Amino acid sequence: MINPSIGIKLVFILGIMNIIGLILILFSCRCALGINSQKLSNSRFYMAVYKYHCIYWIFFIISVIAHATFAFMVFGNPWVK
Q: For the CA atoms of the chain, what is the radius of gyration?
């Protein structure tokens, strides 16, 4: 198994990575911001961020899976006694 002190730190760091990934996804999504997509298409900064939108999703999904896995390894399953 994993050392509990290291596991807790990993769960915390992966939780922070989840938040960062979610923020990146929300700010690179054309639908979530509720702004006219034509205005966004004219912004060079937004297009530079939007170029990596799919990579942000992959980063987020891997981060969530790793976070859940380490949480179960360190804290156990809360539904099983």
A: 17
Please identify which residue in the block is written with the tokens 């997509």. 37
Is pTM beyond 0.90 here? Answer: no
Contact 18/64 with Cβ under 8 angstroms? yes
The amino acid that residue 79 corresponds to is W
Q: Rounded CA gap, 79 and 81, in Å?
A: 7
Ranges in the chain, pLDDT < 70: 32-35, 37, 81
Burial 43-76 (b: 16+ CB within 10 A, else e): eeebeeebeeeeebeebbeebbebbeebbeebee
Q: Tokens 């990575």 belong to which residue?
A: 17
Count of positions (residues) in the chain? 81
DSSP secondary-structure letter at 35? S
